[in-house]
Specification:
single chain; binds zinc ion; about 30% helix; 3 helices; about 25% strand; Hypothetical Cytosolic Protein, Chain: A; 3-stranded antiparallel beta sheet
Length: about 90
């Protein structure tokens, strides 16, 4: 059995198994933002549950942007809004 790594969702502040969450990483070297990046991407990361409420919450007051210390493009926001429906 693999050890569960718990991460806090910035939408609802619940701790969950990070395997079941959306990971958003701002790569340190490039400043680019990746959704569910591969293990080669290193940088500041935040986690969100796969649901509308947490994703919408993370956009409020630019919370997600502040956590990442980066600006979010509309494209990225649209991607996040639809990712859990895939
Ligand atoms: Zn959540």
């Amino acid at each position: 059995m693999t050890k569960e790594t718990l991460r806090k969702c910035i939408g609802c502040f619940n701790n969950k198994n990070c395997q079941t969450m959306i990971k958003i990483t701002r790569e340190s070297s490039s400043g680019k933002i990746f959704i569910n990046p591969n293990s080669k991407i290193f940088g500041r990361s935040v986690y969100l549950c796969y649901n509308d409420l947490c994703i919408a919450n993370s956009f409020k007051k630019n919370k997600l942007a502040k956590f990442l210390k980066a600006d979010l493009t509309e494209e990225l926001k649209e991607k996040l809004k639809t990712i859990h429906k895939e």
